[in-house]
Structures are given as C-alpha cells and as structure tokens.
Amino acid sequence: MSTTPLRALPLETLRRRSSTKWRTYPEDVLPLFVAETDYPLAPAVTAVLAEAVASGDTGYTPADPGIRDAFAGFARRRFGWDVDPAGVRSTADVMMGVVEILRATIRPGDGVVIMPPVYPPFALCTDEAGGIPVSVPLTDTGAGWEIDLDGVDAALAAGARAILLCNPHNPTGTVHSAATLAALAGLAERHGAVVISDEIHAPLVADGVVYTPFLTAGASAARVGFAVTSASKAYNLAGLKCALMVAADDATMRVLAGLNPEVEWRTGLFGALAAVAAFDEASDEWLDALRAALAENRALLGALLAEHLPRAVYRTPDAGYLAWIDLSAYNWGDDPAAFLLDAAKVALHHGPQFGAEGAGYARLNFGCSPEVLTEAIARIGAVARS
Ligand SMILES: Cc1ncc(COP(=O)(O)O)c(C=O)c1O
C-alpha cells in the first residue's frame, strides 16, 4: 500500500488517557489487551467533538442525527454494499444491539449458536437476552479457521433459534468467505433461525482480503440476517456509545422498527456526531493510513515472534488489530496472559475467556506503535529464554 502509515501517539501522551486500556494496570505494564488503539483521532472526528464541547452540545441525540445516510455512504464506498438507510437503527453499542435483536427474535431459553473461540460478551449477552449459548467451535484447518457448517446445522436441528456470527471474527481475525456465509444463511432459513452478524472490525479488513457483508451474501442472508456494526473499533470511539443495527428485508426491518424506542434513545450524541464524521468520505484517507499502519504491524508481529518466540503459533489475521497466538509450547499454563502479566509486565487478553478452545492462547492488540510492539515481544521473549 502506498499510503503513509498513521503513527501511534507516544506512551507519555497515551498514559494521560483515562480509558480502560490505560487505567487497569500500573505504568510498568505495557497494555496490549482491551481493543482500544493508540492512534490520534481522525481529524474530522476531533473537529466535530471539539465543536460540540465548545458549544456545550451535550444534550439528547435527535431522532436521526445523520448516521443512517453516513453509514450507507460508507458501506457503498468501502464495501460496495447498498444499504437502505430506512433499514438502519442506532443504539448505544454493538453488544446492546445484539441483545435487543435477540430479545426480539428468540424466546427465553432458546439456544443461540456461538462459535468459540469468540469475543467473550457473545456468551454473556446471550445470557442477558434470555438465550442459552450453544457452542459450535470454529474448525481449525491447520492454516486458518472456518465455520463448522455441519455443527451449526446440528445445533439448529436441535432447536437453536439464532446464530451470532462474528465477521471479521474476534479473536482469530478470520474473514469468512461469501460461499460460507451463503451456506450459513441457507441453514438458518431452513431451520427458521436468524443470523446476527457483528461486523465491527470490517472497516479494517486487510488489502487483498475479500470481505462480504453478511446481508449481501445472497437472498437468504438478506431475509434472515441483521448486521450490527459501529465506527468504534476502527476509529477508537468505544466510550462515545453509538452503534448501528442494519436490516435488508421488510420483515427484519419491522423487527428493528418494533424495538422499544428506548433502544435508539440510548445512542450517545458524541458517538453519533463522531460516527457521522468517521463514516464521511473526508475520513477515508485517515482510515487508509490506519490500515497501512496495521498492515505493517501484522507483518512486524510475525517477524518479532519468529525472533523472540519461535515456538509461538501466529497466523496473520485477515483484518483488525487483534492477534490470536498459541503459546502452549511454552508451558505457561492454560492462561499465558495471566502468567505474562507478572513475568513480563505485558498485559494480553486471556485466551480461556474466549472459550475452552482458548487454553494456551493469548490475544494481543497490535494497534500500537511498532516500538511498543517490539518492546512487548522482547519482554515476553526474555521470559521464554529465562
Ligand atoms: C467483535 C466485537 N464486537 C463488539 C465489540 C464491542 O463493541 P461495543 O463496545 O460497541 O459493544 C468488540 C470490541 O472489541 C468486538 O471485538
């Protein structure tokens, strides 16, 4: 990519931040755990938030703050996806969108398919919505991960009524193929289930990887699917509370329109303002600079692991800034992150929290400077050699 990579902020600036990433551990720990990034905000986001603060624009979010059209424009430019703004509703965050769509589409006690290793709130939010998580682990092909379509079919045949899809998948970084998504949609339709597709990492798909928005993966997908997404991962806006639920069919649009009005009312005004600025074409250059920085870090991480932790297994993710690393060869127990926090003063995310498949793994966030990434892996390497 010819774009100049975005540079992460220096540690002394980052340590002034008050978010989870910077307030959970003492200063001698390098935080590479929670999915926040270390870059400066996109200029259009900074400008709109600065203006809102200057004018005291801190009231309630209006009915349509412009996010529907902004997201439709973004989806068309970036993914070739024609989104009907009438099928878009907002809420506070992606996981709230997942919970509310589940509440509207399943009955208490229904099974909900999740595909571990997967972002831990998928199970927690299923519980919150009154569903029962049914694990159908991703299949490890030896070169990557794939959805176990036969396993999903069996879970649906046994009564599960919803599938929580993660595309791109957290923590493996897998971008599912159009054929897999179409097959998944067909299974859901045959069994009368819905698919809720969390696409929050989609703006960060790597060059050369084909990402298919679930709702575009064929006629069945459009009928059974809901997409839930946000600008918050790519643009580091998680604290501002704005996410989008998208439907592409009359029946699924009616489900979104029928949600309790409180669901949309909870959209944060700063989140909505920032999302409109982020999804605007003016921010595309910043997004591409971020993607260039992440492409460099994906490759750098591979080189650092080869040098300092040659027995670690790392597959370059198709998207995003999260790496799923198998550290089991080092015998640091089921939860290497717990061991390395003390031993290396590096905070990684705990593999077992992503499901039983995560034993011996840790998730590393490389949305940081190359210097911080280098120091973190060198610290862990020193522990491995000691
Ligand atoms: C796949 C996935 N979904 C949802 C979220 C959280 O999004 P939100 O804060 O909008 O609920 C994350 C955060 O890392 C994530 O990785």
Short description:
With 386 residues, the chain is an alpha/beta fold.
Features of the shown structure:
386 residues; alpha/beta; Aspartate Aminotransferase, domain 1; Aspartate Aminotransferase, domain 2; 2 domains; globular; binds pyridoxal-5'-phosphate; Aminotransferase_I/II_large; transaminase activity; PyrdxlP-dep_Trfase; lyase
Mean pLDDT over the full residue set: 98
Largest sheet: 7 strands, mixed
Main CATH class of the largest domain? Alpha Beta
The amount of helix comes to 40-55%
Based on Cα principal axes, name the global outline: globular
CATH level-two architecture of the largest domain: 3-Layer(aba) Sandwich
Q: Structural class, from secondary structure content?
A: alpha/beta
Oligomer: single chain
Number of extended strands: 15
Numbering strands along the chain, what is their spatial order in the largest sheet? 2-10-9-8-7-3-4
Q: What would you report as the Rg, rounded to the nearest angstrom?
A: 20 Å
For the record, what is the CATH homologous superfamily label of the largest domain? Type I PLP-dependent aspartate aminotransferase-like (Major domain)
Tally of distinct domains: 2
Outline the low-pLDDT stretches: none
Count of alpha/pi helices? 16
Small molecules bound: pyridoxal-5'-phosphate
Estimate the strand proportion. Answer: 5-15%
Per the CATH scheme, the topology name of the largest domain is Aspartate Aminotransferase, domain 2
Terminal Cα separation, in Å?
39 Å
